[in-house]
Amino acid sequence: MTESNGAPRGAGGGSMPDWEKRFRAPRVSLPDWAEDAPDRSLFVSNATGTYELYAWDRATGEQRRATDRPNGTTDGVLSPDGEWIWWFSDKDGDEFGVWLRQPFDGGDDVPAVDGLEASYPAGLAIGRDGSTAVVGRSTDEDGTTIHVVRGGGAPQEIYRHRESAGVGDLSHDGTLIAIEHTEHGDAMHSALRVVRPDGTTVAELDDTKGGSQELGLEVLGFAPVDGDTRLLVGHQRRGRWEPMVWDVASGEETDLALDLPGDVSAEWYPDGSALLVAHSFEARSDLWRYEVGSGALTRVETPPGTVSGATARPDGSVEYLWSSAAEPSVVRSTSGGVVLDPPGLKAPASVPVEDVWVEGPGGRIHALVQKPAGTTGPLPTVFEVHGGPTWHDSDSFAAGPAAWVDHGYAVVRVNYRGSTGYGREWTDALKHRVGLIELEDVSAVREWAVSSGLADPDRLVLAGGSWGGYLTLLGVGTQPDAWAVGLAAVPVADYVTAYHDEMEALKALDRTLFGGTPEEVPDRFTASSPLTYVDEVKAPVYVSAGVNDPRCPIRQIDNYVDRLAARGATHEVYRYDAGHGSLVVEERIKQVRLELDFAARHLS
Question: How much is the pLDDT for 241?
Answer without folding.
Answer: 96
